[in-house]
Design a protein that fits this description.
single chain, 10 helices
């Protein structure tokens, strides 16, 4: 998959069939649009292209009140898109100047004159351009003027729920990671390097790996205990994860993400870890003493092992 970060006359496209949007999460609705686009592009010998933005538009437009957390980091998003068979992803630099372009100017100056779009495939509720004024109807009218076709795909639903990045984001924030996975089509993931922590878990018989997230804009589930599946190099290891401030063993109020890997006792500081968060087990709570905490961790491990073994 080719990644284009800056458009220029030297970068050529082959009659691209294109979709556009932030595509945060690359959820099942996004995947349906891309599969349709890729299939049509392959059938016509044309190039399948996603036009997306970096950074997230809201971070540029509302920097002081920006509160949108990302379902996927850029690296995670690109990895998902690559698996879907896209030929090219355009990571267009989103700026305030660009945001002032009208829908017509964006289509004419960028999609037509610089990229040479031949078809556009968009979702059921897609809007674009200054103040999100561009609609499917306007795209159709512009397509007639500039000679490209426009296709609108219907909403994708799970049960009675129309899939959206906002719904997934809210589910993760509420700790409902299993529902988020249903809408994403894959488990929700955190990635980062293993940091050296206070090693409190080791002193009570449950050594843990602390994870440092590399992107502060990445969404994190609410505080609590979760069943997780860990990818460490080529190895896949089950475990249980705690997100929170560890109120029983410390009072510094610092939020940490720590994972107890089952049947594992190796030094892995500095290694990259991918964590699939499979199921919320319980909320974080303060215990009266260390013995109560140890008993609860043992119970958490039993619940997590049973849940994860049933997935195999």
């Amino acid at each position: 998959m080719r990644i284009v970060r800056q458009l220029s006359p030297e970068i050529k496209f082959n009659s691209p069939i294109l979709t556009l949007g932030t595509y945060d999460g690359v959820h099942l609705g996004h995947q349906e649009i891309i599969r349709s686009l890729v299939e049509r592009a392959n059938g016509k010998g044309k190039e399948s292209v996603l036009f997306t933005f970096e950074p997230h538009p809201r971070k540029v437009l509302y920097p002081e009140s920006y509160s949108v957390k990302l379902i996927d980091t850029l690296e995670e998003k690109l990895a998902k898109l690559d698996k879907l068979g896209l030929d090219t992803v355009i990571l267009f630099p989103f700026t305030k100047e660009f945001s002032r372009l009208s829908a017509m100017e964006f289509v004419r100056d960028i999609l037509v004159n610089q990229i040479g779009v031949s078809e556009m495939h968009i979702g059921h509720d897609h809007h674009f351009g200054k103040n999100r004024e561009g609609s499917f109807r306007e795209l159709q009218e512009l397509g007639e003027v500039y000679d490209f076709k426009v296709f609108q795909l219907p909403a994708i639903s799970v049960g009675e729920t129309t899939i959206s990045s906002t719904k997934i984001r809210n589910a993760v924030l509420e700790g409902n990671v299993s529902y988020a996975a249903t809408l994403l089509g894959t488990p929700f993931v955190l990635e980062g390097k293993v940091l050296k922590g206070q090693q409190i878990g080791r002193t009570i018989g449950f050594p843990t790996a602390n994870i440092g997230l590399e992107n502060p804009d990445k969404i994190v589930p609410k505080n609590g205990v979760y069943a997780v599946r860990i990818y460490l190099g080529e190895r896949v290891i089950d475990g249980v994860m705690n997100i929170g401030i560890r109120p029983t063993v410390t009072n510094n109020g610092q939020k940490v993400i720590e994972i107890h890997l089952f049947d594992f006792n190796e030094e892995i500081y500095g290694q990259q870890m991918k964590v699939e968060i499979m199921q919320h087990i319980r909320d974080e709570k303060r215990f009266e003493n260390i013995e109560e905490l140890k008993n609860q961790i043992q119970l958490d491990e039993i619940i997590a092992r049973n849940y994860l073994s049933a997935l195999v």
